[in-house]
Amino acid sequence: MTYEGKGGSIPIHPPDISSNGMFVNTSTHFPEGAVVILRFRLTRSNVEVQTRAEVRYCLPGIGIGVEFIGIGPEAKRAIEEDLESASRFRT
Predict the structure, then answer these.
(1) Distance CA 38, CA 13 (A)
(2) Cα separation, 3 vs 1, whole angstroms
(3) Alpha carbon distance 39, 41 (integer Å)
């Protein structure tokens, strides 16, 4: 993940994702409204997703909740398919 307008990358471990956004575990503090660039690989399909996201809330020392902005339809579909696959596996 990179903070738009800042240099350097921040490694992330996303535990919670939907087709509209995700929670990102990070100890880095981001203000609400900050725009970040996310790049991650979906676990089941191995599809790489890259999108901009806006920070909606920050839990200091724990992580941030972000909403995807400008995500492409292919990436959104890949996330939905990954989630459906995971749901079928759990049942």
Answers:
(1) 11
(2) 7
(3) 7
Q: What is the rounded distance in angstroms from the CA atom of residue 40 to the CA atom of residue 71?
A: 13
Query: Would you give the distance in Å from CA 60 to the centre of its chain?
Result: 17
| Single-letter residue type at 2 | T
CB atoms under 10 Å from CB of 21, counted, come to: 20
| End-to-end CA gap in the chain | 32
Give the Cα separation of 51 and 1 in Å (integer): 10
pTM: 0.78
Please report which confidence band the pLDDT of residue 12 belongs to, taking 50, 70 and 90 as the band edges.
low
